[in-house]
Amino acid sequence: MQGAKEKVKDMGSTAKEKTKEFSAKAGEKAGKATARNKAEKEMAKENAKAKEAEAKAELHQEKADHRSDSAMHPGTTRVPLTHHRPAATTTYPTAGHLPAGEKYI
């Protein structure tokens, strides 16, 4: 269960990282489109690379945080085996139909 929680948290972090990468690429395209010379185009490209690198660093940091959180609480998500439902004592009619609510007991 803990591994599943980590995977879900990692997927959320990955989605955030992909969003940041996409916005960096869109910003790069906008910067290149509005640039007036090569230096401004290079600056837009470098800014986009920096934003993508920052997004990847944040992703790795969040994944490390998820691992440390799960390592601090091992086995806390297990369901105790002592809380089972008691066995039902149902008597079935000898003839006729079962009521709709008790059909599959």
Shape: elongated
The string of secondary-structure elements, in order, is HH
Structural class: mainly alpha
Arithmetic mean pLDDT: 81
- Low-confidence blocks of residues: none
According to DSSP, the number of beta strands is 0
**Alpha-carbon Rg, integer:** 28 Å
Strand portion, in percent?
A: under 5%
Cα end-to-end separation: 29 Å
Give a short account of the largest sheet. Answer: none
Count, helices: 2
Helix content: 55-70%
Family: Belongs to the LEA type 1 family.
Pfam families: LEA_1 (PF03760)
Question: What features would you describe in this structure?
Answer:
Pfam families: LEA_1 (PF03760). One of its GO terms (biological process) is embryo development ending in seed dormancy. The chain has 105 residues and is an all-alpha fold. It has a domain of 70 residues. The chain is built from 2 helices and no strands. α1 packs antiparallel against α2. The protein starts with a helix and ends in a 33-residue tail after the last helix.
